[in-house]
Amino acid sequence: MKRGSGKQWVEGKRFRLADEVRYIQNKAAEHDGRVVTLGQLVLFSTDSGDAWLLDVTDQLAARLARDGDPESIHLEETDTSFAIGWKGHYHIEESAFIYTDSDTGRVTTILGYPTQTIARAG
User: CA of 32: how far to CAs of 25, 28, 77, in Å?
Assistant: First the structure.
């Protein structure tokens, strides 16, 4: 797993997804843009205070923070596995991050996210 910007490596046995979610939510609260990658998962925060958890393989998304305020996420974790309550899907078109909420069908287009970094992770 790599954390941006200084890129700190975290060993797999010490990895807890819930810890990484809290880390990225805290960075969002500080309006500090960061990117954390773990296999097909990408967590990122932005200078605007938003944060997301993405599955780049299946293009699943869950918002973790909005304007610096944390949002709830359903996360179950054991020593060997985890389950995430995904709330929608995303895709990237050039510099646009496009999110579709699974419950409402609402489509939101957001500019200013690290779309190139996310696209490279996929």
Answer: 10, 6, 26
